[in-house]
Amino acid sequence: MNPESNLRQIVEDEWEKGDFRPIAEIHKTTNELFKGHEVNFSEYFEEGLGCRCKLAFFQTPSDRRFFVTEYCNLLFPFTNIFVLYDSKTAMHDLDEIKQLLDINDEDLDLVYKF
Questions:
Q1: Would you say 70 and 30 are in contact if contact means Cβ atoms under 8 Å apart?
Q2: Which string of DSSP letters, residue by residue, matches 40-97?
Q3: Model confidence over 53-72: pLDDT tens digits?
Q4: Least CB-packed of 23, 39, 98, 114 within 10 Å?
């Protein structure tokens, strides 16, 4: 995560309901993404995949909301970024998130098209 970012973690009570969909899959763990930063993750069990998951909600400086889910204890663990489904803003949202998390295209395993 970019140490100078104004990324704000939000609690679940602040979360807006909506049609959030995965936009990118990353080959970094949440520990790697947020190294040196205090981030509180909720944990739950994903029955469909049969794995433990870590989840955190965020708000960008431009007031966009997204969440990060890490699918743990799989043969190949992965982390997904979810954004509000909007084909007009999704890629811009991803660009802003990449900058805030200090990741680049090489860190992305997959980008989902809306």
A1: yes
A2: --EEEEETTTTEEEEEEEEE-TTS-EEEEEEE-SSSS-EEEEEEE--TTTHHHHHHHH
A3: 999 999 999 999 999 999 99
A4: 114
At a CB cut-off of 8 Å and minimum separation 6, what does 97 contact? 24, 60, 66, 81, 83
| This prediction's pTM | 0.89
Closest CA to 17 of 73, 80, 85, 106: 85
Task: With beta carbons less than 8 A apart as the criterion, state whether 80 and 71 touch.
Answer: yes
- φ, ψ at 98 (rounded to 5°): -60, -45
Q: Determine the Cα–Cα distance for residues 41 and 75; give it in Å rounded to an integer.
A: 21
pLDDT tens for 75-89 read 888 999 999 888 899
Rounded to whole angstroms, how far apart are CA atoms 90 and 109?
Answer: 17
